[in-house]
Specification:
The protein is α+β, with helices and mostly antiparallel strands and 217 residues long. The protein has 6 helices and 9 strands; from the N terminus they run H-E-E-E-E-H-E-E-E-H-H-E-E-H-H. It has a 5-stranded antiparallel beta sheet.
Amino acid sequence: MYVPEVFRLEDAAAATAVVRDNSFGLLVTVSAQGRPQASHLPFLFEETAVDAAGGVQGRLLGHLARANPQRHDLEALADSGGEALVVFQGAHGYVSPSWYEPGPAVPTWNYLAVHLYGRPRIIEAAAEVEALLDRLVEDHEAGAAKPWRMEGQDPKYLARMRRGILAFEIPVARLEAKAKLSQNKSAADRRRVVEALDAAQDPLARALAAEMRAKAP
C-alpha cells in the first residue's frame, strides 16, 4: 500500500481498532502461476503483544468454503512459506474542494485502511476448527436479544457444515496502516471538511468526521 509519511498510522492500537471494528476483510493471494484471487471473509483478530518498536504481534483467524478455489493458494502458501494479504477498510468518504478555503484544489477521498501480511497455517484439528467457529458465532451474536448458539444444534448437520470449510490462521508478520484524514491541509480546511461530513446523511461520512476529530494533528 502506498503510504506517504504524513498519512502513516503509527499507533498500533488505532490500527488494530480498525481491524476489529471492520472485521469483514478481503483475503488476497497470488497463485504460483501469478493468478490473483480475493475473497470477502469475516475474521477474528487475536492480538498477543505489541513489540518494542510498536509493531503488532498476533494472528488472524478465518475460514472459507472448501469449494472456493482460493483454498489451493492458501495451502500452497502454507507449504512454501509465502505470504497472504488481508485488507481491512475503515471509515471513508468523498472530500469536495468546495470545503476548502479559496484557492486551487481538487477532489479527493479520505479513508482508513489496514493491510496485514503473514504466512497462512491450515487448521485441520477438529477441536480447533470447532473452537474457531464457536468464537466467530459468539463475536457476531454478541448483543442479540436471543443469541444463537452452536450448542443444541443437530450435531450431524454441524459436522457436515464443518467438513465444507477450510479453517486457517495467519500470524501477522507485518502491518501497514494508513489514515488519510486531511493531515496535509490547514487546520481551517480540516475543520470545514469535518463540518461538511458531519452534516452529511451518509453514516459513513459522519463516521469519517469522528475519525478526523479523534486523530487531529
